[in-house]
Amino acid sequence: MAEINHFEYGWITPALSYALSVLGSVLGLICAGRIRTAGTAGQRAWWGLLAAWALGGTAIWAMHFMAMLGFAVAGTRIRYDVPLTAASTAIAVVAVGIGLAIVGTGRLNPVRLIAGGIFTGVGVAAMHYSGMAAMRLNGSLGYDTTRVALSVAIAIVAATVALWLAMTVRRPLAIFASALVMGIAVNGMHFTGMSALSVHQHEEQGEITGTGMSTLLVPIVLAVIFGVVGLLYALLAAPTDDDRAAAAYLDGRRAPEPAAAAPVVAPDPVGLRARSTLGQPGTPFPSRRETPPR
């Protein structure tokens, strides 16, 4: 059995992975809060997509691969299958998105919350172990069943709490505190799953296919940077509740358009205007009773 080192670079990789999970959780909770205040179905879908990317793409998937930078197996190089790695990204984002859709449609109740938490937690665990399955090294992977089950249970509990927080937390301090807790839960699930891993090294050194982590690191970092910048821009550009209230107040204070002024008619005390119209087409002649005496 090969020797495994989960912290090859010391505290740097776990600290960065925790920071990524907290950052993604903060952005995800803010975007999820916008789902509740969105006025149309399109706006709710847009904020749901951003929240799924922040939580699934940054807080979970990017955190996973940042932690994997510190993973090493003695006597072999580690490479990754790119299509399977990309699939693990999609699994994380889609699982979180469906979980948000379950708890975000209709009134929040325990049945919706538990169903969304189970679905999202299983999806997060599937992301983790599919990302592990993408590793290519000179050995075969083995897992301790008890610790795998424990990691899945942690993922389900963490996902349920995260969905509940996403639907209830609104104040900035509460969002930040919740993100700190979510970061602990996500990292706890990851390292619990990693502790279940064992590697049985092959006696014969064969060719290892796939892409090295150093090559994958650049696109992963760029995706995280552009994703975070895009999320921040979307949050800053979107109108807040205060902006909508101010706009409604200004619309109410706006003066109405002045009505068209009625034409001014000069006084006609002796009836000259009426007499001037006699004989014109369309003007009726006075009746005999109205004819003045001679």
Give short descriptive properties of this protein.
single chain, two-stranded antiparallel sheet, 7% strand, elongated
Give the strand order of the largest sheet, numbering strands 1, 2, ... along the chain.
Answer: 4-3-7
The helix-and-strand class reads mainly alpha
Helix content: 55-70%
- Regarding quaternary structure, what we see is single chain
End-to-end gap:
136 Å
Number of individual domains: 1
Residue stretches low in confidence (pLDDT < 50, at least 5 long) are none
Radius of gyration: 34 Å
The count of β-strands is 7
Gross geometry = elongated
Our count of helices gives 9
In terms of DSSP E residues, the strand content is: 5-15%
Average pLDDT, all residues: 81
Write the H/E string, N to C. Answer: EHHEEHHEEHHEEHHH
- How would you sum up the major sheet? 3 strands, antiparallel
Describe this structure as you would to a colleague:
The protein is mostly helical and 294 residues long. It has one domain. It is 65% helix and 7% strand. It contains 9 helices and 7 strands, in the order E-H-H-E-E-H-H-E-E-H-H-E-E-H-H-H. It has helices spanning 12-37, 41-68, 82-104, 110-133, 145-168, 172-195, 213-237, 241-253, 272-276, and strands at 4-5, 72-73, 79-80, 135-136, 139-143, 197-201, 211-212. The protein has a 3-stranded antiparallel sheet.
